[in-house]
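Researcher: We're teaching a course module on how sequence relates to structure. For the next exercise, students receive a sequence and then see the predicted structure as tokens, so they can try to spot secondary structure elements on their own. Here is the exercise chain.
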Amino acid sequence: MLHQAWQLCGRWCRCSSPVIHLLMLTVMTFGVLAPLICHRLLHSYFYLRRWHLKPMSQEFLEHNQQEGQDALHYFEKMQIPNASKASGSDAFQPLLLITIITVQRRNDFHYVLQVASRFHHLLQKCGARCQSHRLLLCNVESDPSSHQDVRLLSSFFPMVSRDRTGENPDPSVNQFEKEKQDYVFCLEQSLLSYNPQYILVVEDDAVPEEEIFSVLQHLLLARLSKPYLRDALYFKLYHPERLQHYFNPEPMRILEWFGLGMFLGPMLSYVYSWVLGRPGPGWFLVLFFALYSMALLELVGRHYLLELRRLHPALYNVVPVTECCTPAMLFPAPSARRALGYLKGLHCRQGFAKDTALYSLLRAKGENAYVVEPNLVRHVGMYSSLRINSNPKLL
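Model: And here is the predicted structure for the students to work with:
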């Protein structure tokens, strides 16, 4: 009975019009299968926000709070190194200095402990390949001694502080200008303290991914030998997943999207023709499957396709930068000095924060900058130091 039904179905498929096939495929894909499979994918257009956002946000907060406690126990159990190793800078020039900018905020999440413990663990795991890397804490809390987590970390890592206790507050310095000045201070202190070849400036809620050092090694030793990358002002190692879709004004993403359609269109049309025993596909079939695959990739989410690039460091994408966000920024030392000079001449305000300021420099100063895809850090800080939000959500 089943065999007869299969034969009947095959005969119907071969005899009926391709238009009917393609219409049914479209309805089944976008009306049934994709919504069923993708309704829990946070960065997909099929994500059912009303159903899942609140419980997923609460689950993320609880999990992150536990990660904060784990990071606290990580350092409580760690043996305190010799003072000379923890407080002084090295005599040699490090290849990479990782500078963690931190300010006091929600104590129960221990954001900076999460970041520092993860970097420390990955540096230990990296071994000899990362011997030329160093870690520096930059405490920009107005009263440095009030930052409890940094007091714990100061036993393990070198630290610089921007101490402004006793100073009269400048009324012209808003919270966005303060953040920019803190960033300038930490970047400047990184150059003065270690004179590294590269500086990775990381905010205290940007937890590194497992493969960060293998990708950075490939980037620093292989990719940056190319002339167009060597003189870049900076490299972003994070861009919000919600802003990674193809349907975007970024030209490189549009080209990538069309390229995938041109590759998948002919391939899927040949598979369709082969399955139904029809002659080679015509231009209509190729065009349909190109548009079909492009629509599916966009609606499911480019973020999930980018995750495949984690298979090998050489697969990571380095493309012209996008504007938003600075959780993790890599500066070659000469570029860091140029960026310092540029930023000191700018005044930040609401709508013109430091990420927008850095991006504005590219056209104004004739500079180039790039973003590495997929992200090399996870942004876990749902409680911002700039914006008060008592009920944060993942989106």
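Model: If you want an answer key for the exercise: Confidence is low (pLDDT under 50) at residues 83-88. The first strand starts at residue 96 and ends at 102.
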